[in-house]
Amino acid sequence: MKKFLVISAFLVLIFASNAKSQSMTTVAYSMGLATGDLGDYASSFSGRGFTIDYRKMVQPNLGVGFYSGWNVFYDERPFDTYTVDNRTLSGKQYRYVNTVPLMLAADYYIKPGEDLNPFVGLGLGTSYTERATDMGIYRLTEDAWSFAFAPQVGFMYSLNRYAGVSLAVKYNMGLAAGDFDSTQSYLSFNIGYVFMGN
Hints:
Elements: H1 2-18, E1 23-35, H2 36-41, E2 48-59, E3 62-84, E4 87-109, E5 116-135, E6 138-158, E7 163-174, E8 184-197
Antiparallel strand pairs: 1-2, 1-8, 2-3, 3-4, 4-5, 5-6, 6-7, 7-8
């Protein structure tokens, strides 16, 4: 995870230093709700996550860049007998999910130049998902890198010409790959601080 943070910080610095037109870097606190197969595995609402979004404005109402982050989900299951693949174990289960999206992204801003600016966007790229199930001394893990996409809606409020705040909802979906026979998806609710540069 340290490698991921270093690479993300490096990319933000490179994009920010090379941007000649306006750019925006959003660092957000992210809350998540797993859906579909991932929701069946870990159904609890999660308050553990963050996102980093960078957009360079190529038109007054169009920004392109990248999106990344990290969301963690956790669930605790009661004492029971569970069968995974060809193994049957009895005990209490503790389930953990880590997801890391790495995507190219674009946003369309509906009211450029105004303080309150709604937007819609889409990210395309890859997502790493790891699921770990602990039962007593045993740990069962599944993971995959998969093709993924993340549509989003939200709005940004400009505090001044250098900073703003944003609220956004993203639907992150990684397609079936690796150890997963079905999509791994979740909603993320993001509250961020926006750094604006020229």
